[in-house]
Amino acid sequence: MNTFDQMVDRGHEQVSFHQDPDTGLRAIIAVHSTVLGPGFGGARRWYYATEADALYDVLRLSEGMTYKAAAANLPMGGGKAVVLLPKLDYRATEAEARALGRCVQALGGRYISAEDVGLSPQYVDWMAQETTWVTGGIDHCPGGDPSPHTAQGVVNAMRAALTHVGRDADFSGVTVAIQGAGNVGSNIARILTGLGAKVLIADIADVRVKRVVDECGATPVEHEDILTTPCDILAPCALGGVIDATIIPKLRCPIICGGANNILDDYDEDGVALMASNIVYVPDFIANAGGVIELAGVYLDLSPDDRAQRIAEIETTALQVLRDAESASSTYMAAVSYAKRRIDEAAKPRVTAG
Ligand code: NAD
Questions:
Q1: SS3 letters for the chain?
Q2: CATH code of 253's domain
Q3: How far is CA 148 from CA 2, 184, 189, 294, in A?
Q4: Chain centre to alpha carbon of residue 55
Q5: Which residues are marked as active site?
Q6: What angle do CA 316, 318, 322 make, to 5 degrees?
Q7: If you take atom 1 of ligand 1, which residue's CA is the nearest one?
Q8: Among 48, 141, 172, 283, which residue's beta carbon has the most beta carbons within 10 A?
């Protein structure tokens, strides 16, 4: 499909391609929707095999951000940026970050950036020297690392899933298998072991697994096996697309609830297949909204109590969506309908008296 057809298909307002001759930066910024507010979403630095892969990723991620912000009741739309690295593990520099900051600034506030995979608060601070439309730094813009808040939101969503399947939501005797011992996965492991859960952890980087094992007493699992390991909750916290038609028949968990974006390879088919397999899937954009609530909340000047309350409310939102899904084709579609209802409500013209 060409770019315009993909935009029309997903409902994107704007996609812009950027290059900086001094640093070699190549970036794509997608603004999916500004109905509720500026398109909000992190920037991802990644090596993509093709430009089409990068475009697909940014379109999919920015669409998800629209639903995530709407479902979290934030006055924000959805956007995302991807930086196309020339090779894996390409070093991040201040010059590159500042070039990306200038690209964000050029959109005049239609897109507000933050960190996603491959970015750090330091990188965001560098961007913030060129643009006011970024959050999640330390010195030049507030917010910091969102992952502890994302992790807390995922744990709240897990509680909803346990309640939904008729189990106590206190995590004692609950086994959770986490794929990815990065920022989000390691924070989830820390919270869950503190609550008495048994945590199984896997990562392609052994050093990250070891850190979580040493810190929390988690049990290491080979990364090739983690998705099919018997557990009560499977928490994908690495990259997207890990739940697909091949893996679904091999899953040995009653619940999937993780921090990764776009966990399902195919929203429609995989969502339906999970439902048919009696596996409760908490849609990612509901479960992993904690970081966005925190950073958008800082940007919007919401108080820490208000932000924490909204992250706590992920549990009730997730429970509502899981109940709605009883009359939908999948939990994912129920969550999209939930988010779209909020957007439609906000988009309705206000009728004023007189
Ligand atoms: P991260 O880079 O810190 O961690 C990801 C980890 O996954 C890394 O340790 C990596 O080695 C590991 N990994 C990659 N492929 C793997 C595989 N096949 N098997 C096992 N491990 C593998 O990233 P993060 O910030 O923890 O984010 C993780 C996911 O959560 C991403 O999909 C991100 O988009 C999503 N997310 C993050 C936040 C946040 O606050 N950081 C918020 C919302 C969503």
A1: CCHHHHHHHHCCCEEEEEEECCCCEEEEEEEEECCCCCEECCEEEECCCCHHHHHHHHHHHHHHHHHHHHHCCCCCEEEEEEEECCCCCCCCCHHHHHHHHHHHHHCCCCEEECECCCCCHHHHHHHCCCCCCECCECCCCCECCCHHHHHHHHHHHHHHHHHHCCCCCCCCCCEEEEECCCHHHHHHHHHHHHCCCEEEEECCCHHHHHHHHHHHCCEECCCCCHHHCCCCEEEECCCCCCECCCCHHHCCCCEECCCCCCCECCHHHHHHHHHHCCCEECCHHHHCCHHHHHHHHHHCCCCHHHHHHHHHCHHHHHHHHHHHHHHCCCHHHHHHHHHHHHHHHHHCCCCCCC
A2: 3.40.50.720
A3: 38, 7, 11, 10
A4: 17
A5: 80
A6: 115
A7: 182
A8: 283
100 and 170 share a domain? no
Q: What residue type is 202 in one-letter code?
A: A
Domain coverage including residue 239: 147-290+315-340
Verify that 13 and 102 share a domain, yes or no: yes
136 ligand 1 Cβ < 6 A: no
47 lies in some domain: yes
152 and 54 co-located in one domain: no
* Same-domain pairing of 26 and 114: yes
On whether both 99 and 204 belong to a single domain, the answer is no
- 124 and 243 share one domain: no
pLDDT of residue 146: 92
Residues 172 and 284 in one domain: yes
**Residue 205 CA, closest ligand 1 atom number:** 11
The pLDDT score that the predictor gives to residue 352 is 60
| The two structure tokens encoding residue 106 | 């050029």
Confirm whether 322 is domain-assigned. Answer: yes
Q: Which residue positions in the chain have pLDDT lower than 50?
A: none
Contact (CB, 8 A) for 115 and 124 = yes
Model's pTM, two decimal places? 0.93
Say how far apart CA 291 and CA 289 lie, in whole Å: 6
pLDDT of residue 354: 52
Q: Structural domain tally of the chain?
A: 2
State in Å: Cα 350 to ligand 1 middle: 41
